[in-house]
Design a protein that fits this description.
Elements lengths: L4 E2 L8 E2 L3 E2 L6 E2 L20 E4 L6 E4 L5 H10 L5 H11 L21 E3 L6 E3 L10 H80 L1 E2 L6 E2 L2 H11 L5 H19 L5 E2 L6 E2 L2 H11 L1 H6 L3 H7 L1
Antiparallel strand pairs: 1-2, 3-4, 5-6, 7-8, 9-10, 11-12
Helix pairs in contact: 5-8
């Protein structure tokens, strides 16, 4: 029989009177194997058209799953289809003004010079079929326009009042911000001054405590109440200014005992220094020797009693 065709599946090969032809592999299949998955179509997706937009000319370029997007775009650029002129044409078409149509509800007739009618009451353009007031609901549209105008005026007044309130609030907020900035600056200055004054007071207190510590820790002479920083200075002062009285007679006796010996050993008419026992031929040489050799010791201090004993 010449009616129908056999299924192209090797395992089926059934004769179907209403066979199906695959649009990808062009094979003939029965009802059971008509889908891509059942007959395992090797060219499935070859008619799956997809598009992407060219980043240069903004054209939509078609490609399939078997193709590489980069290769398709390079081919698009290579053949010269990617031009700025087409992009400008698309922009011009996008900016093309819409055609004027009838304002009546449900009517989409394009208005031209020959079939256009302008209603003087509702201020709208309609076609000739809807030129009467009842045909394009003239009264309803006039009421809607009137309410829109009134609402627009009310909104305008409300917007003006809102604008004035906003301006006043802005001015108030600006003044408040300035006052806050002044207060912050004043607080910073006051804090700095208080910190500096506290530092100065702490420094003064530290110096006073240091001086008190020095005064309390200093050494004091028990005889003349003179204060010294170190014990060695106090000992030197006591030995120099306040010698032991019990040692004075011994020194005097030793000086007296030494005086006859010195007198006996010195020649007649010579003078002897009472401190270093140096012998001089006359009194002037002795005075000159005392002024030059023993002036410092006399100034630094020895007691009058010691000088008298030595003399």
């Amino acid at each position: 029989m010449d009616i129908g065709a056999h299924c192209s599946m090797p395992a089926c090969h059934q004769q179907d009177f209403l066979p199906f032809t695959c649009d990808c592999c062009s094979g003939v299949f029965c009802l059971e194997h008509r889908s891509y998955d059942t007959h395992e179509c090797p060219k499935v997706g070859s008619h799956d058209r997809r598009v992407f937009q060219c980043p240069v000319c903004r054209q939509l370029i078609r490609w399939t799953m078997e193709q590489d997007v980069n290769a398709v775009w390079e081919e698009h650029v290579r053949v010269g289809q990617c031009t700025r002129e087409k992009f400008r044409q698309q922009q011009a078409q996008a900016k093309k003004p819409k055609k004027k149509r009838c304002a009546a509800d449900g009517c989409r007739e394009v208005l031209l010079v020959s079939n256009q009618f302008h209603c003087m009451k509702c201020r709208q353009d309609v076609c000739l079929k809807h030129r009467f007031e009842g045909d394009h609901d003239c009264e309803t549209k006039r009421q809607a326009q009137r309410q829109q105008w009134l609402g627009g005026g009310f909104r305008g007044n409300r917007a003006a009042s809102t604008t004035s309130k906003t301006k006043s609030n802005t001015a108030h907020s600006t003044a408040q911000l300035q006052q806050n900035a002044r207060n912050a600056a004043a607080s910073v200055v006051n804090g700095t001054k208080s910190a500096m004054s506290s530092l100065v007071q702490n420094a003064k207190a530290a110096s006073a405590s240091a001086s008190n510590a020095i005064s309390t820790s200093s050494e004091e002479c028990p005889i003349c109440q003179q204060k010294f920083a170190y014990v060695s200075q106090l000992i030197a002062h006591v030995n120099r200014a306040h010698p032991d009285p019990s040692a004075a007679p011994s020194r005097a006796s030793s000086a007296q005992s030494a005086a006859p010996t010195a007198a006996s050993s010195t020649p007649a008419g010579s003078e002897v220094c009472p401190q270093c026992r140096a012998v001089f031929p006359d009194l002037n040489a002795l005075i000159h020797h005392g002024e030059t050799a023993h002036a410092a010791s006399a100034v630094s201090g020895g007691s009058d009693q010691e000088k008298c004993c030595l003399m």
